[in-house]
Amino acid sequence: NAGVTQTPKFQVLKTGQSMTLQCAQDMNHEYMSWYRQDPGMGLRLIHYSVGAGITDQGEVPNGYNVSRSTTEDFPLRLLSAAPSQTSVYFCASRDGFNEQYFGPGTRLTVT
Amino acid sequence: ILNVEQSPQSLHVQEGDSTNFTCSFPSSNFYALHWYRWETAKSPEALFVMTLNGDEKKKGRISATLNTKEGYSYLYIKGSQPEDSATYLCAFNPGGGADGLTFGKGTHLIIQP
Question: For residues A14 and A43, what is the distance between their CA atoms, to the nearest angstrom?
Answer without folding.
Answer: 24
